[in-house]
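Note to self: the last two entries modelled the partners one at a time, which told us nothing about the interface. This time every component goes in together.
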Amino acid sequence: MSELELLNRRFERERKARKEAESLLEQKSLAVYEANQKLQRMADQNRAIVETAAEGILSYDENGTISAFNRSARLIFKCPSMVGKSISSVFAMDDSCRAVLFPASNVATDVFPPGAELATTDDTEVCQFTLPDAIEVAATKFDGKPFQSEVAVSRCQRGDGVVFTAVVRDLSKRKAMESRLRQAQKMESVGQLAAGIAHEINTPIQFVGDNIQFLQSAFNDLAGLIDLFEQLEKAVAEETPTAELLEKIATERELADLPFLREEFPGAIEQSLSGIERVAKIVRALKEFSQPMSEAKTSIDVNRSIENTLAVTANQCRNVGHVELDLSADLGLVSCLAGQMNQVWLNLLTNSLDAVTEHRAEGERHIRISTRLVANDSLEDEVEVCFEDNGPGIPAAIQERIFEPFFTTKEVGKGAGQGLSFVHDVIVEKHGGIIYVQSPPQGGTRVVVRLPIQCDSSIQRRTHARSAY
Amino acid sequence: MKGIVFTELIEMVESDLGIEIADRMIAGGNTQNSGAYTAVGTYDHAELIHLVVALSQETSIPVSELVRTFGKHLFVRFFELYPQFFSGIESATQFLPLVETYIHVEVRKLYPDAELPSFECQQTGEVLAMTYRSKRPFADLAEGLVLACVDHFADAIEVARTDIGEKNGTEATFTLTPKTTNCLLAETV
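The predicted structure of the combined assembly is written out below.
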């Protein structure tokens, strides 16, 4: 075969290959165009999702320069688009906020507690933090007004750097609602307490009033006798006849019934003083109980705090018959938020009172409150307060939920579901204590609170525990 | 199989053996498209076998040796065409594990339908065992690639091939052992 023929055959192969390559190129171009269209649609869809999301969504790089700022973010921060601006213009960038907004690729930080998860995809490293607890961060509106926000941040490693995406919620309304709810609950408690206390004061005031009326009436009788005695004294001094006076005195004394008065006066006075002391005691307890919700911890006598709680709830406690107290004398003082601790005892006692009142007949109701000094695992002293009742108990199925806010087993309109949530918050979060509940299948509930003598939640914060028999 | 393998084979034959042998190989291979391949196309791997068998008949060189030689040629061409895959790599034992984890990943991005062989690497001390598995019987091609890779990096490494599985060229393990280690062993023995 000649070289020209070979070259012709080769040229023909090359021509066919070129045509096939052109055809492939056209197919590829079409495929690329369609892929582009699809990507464009997806991008539009994603942009629409981000833009219309109910939560604020911000993307920013390692320097904090914002690359995306959706509509909800603009509404939350009350500002125009912040794309190209610094993240520090919308968040108060202190150390804790910086740690939340710029999570490192190694997620084991104090800010992201156990439970934060790292997810990876084939070609992108994505740190997706699934947070057991929402992280609250101080933020600033465009007009400079600060507000609390809730932030969840994900970290995405791209070829050209790191991209952070923050989902932001404005907590202002929720905080205001919680505050109103707490206030409403407080007012409801105050109303109940006021009714009980009014009843408690009413009884002694009534008999003190009756006694004073009796003493007043008796004194009117005695006043005539005293006048006659004065006249008799004058007659004797002037040596004038006294027979008539003596006869009058005898008559008045008969009318006044002096032996009766001599017998009744001490009792009436003693009873009145006792009544006044009862009122004074209630007023004293109320004064101590209702001290302002100070944020400063003070040293309190837990036993006295419990006794005050019983005093202000005496009216409700009377339904039980007798609340048994077993208070250890060697507790000493505990450093805590006194007002909030009183509310804790009140909530626990109210729960026990409700449980036994609704589910036990009179004479069978029993509540026992005890205190003692115990050592914890670190052999440090703690005060243990135990509330026990013989109510229906807490079913095992709901024991995990009893400390959740708004969870209640009481019928609609009766329980706000805030009592145990409040107790948990005060004992565990604010005082570094623990609280656990035991409830055997046959009924009855035992709530145990343990408080460190030096309550400092920043030193040790322990979660509550729940256990069934 | 990607067209680049076919175009590179024809170019190698044209370059080394001349245009006439290349034409005879194509005619003898009796392929569907009469040897009109484009690098970006995809073709049946059986056509490559037909071409190599035809070339073997024309040159009286065994098929396995031809394929191995072609493998070496392919490696050199890959280095010329895709230098980015070799950037910062200093030895064959460093490069070969990247075939599966990096190069094939990149190839799949461009050609999602590419049916690539698998290269499983296991490093034991200084010895690298690389196992080739494919639906196609191209262990010889893989061997040529591995040998060219060792030559490229001028590594003092010996490559031993062990056919595994059905021993039909679809599965083989290449063991890369540093030559110095062998000398030491020999001296010890």
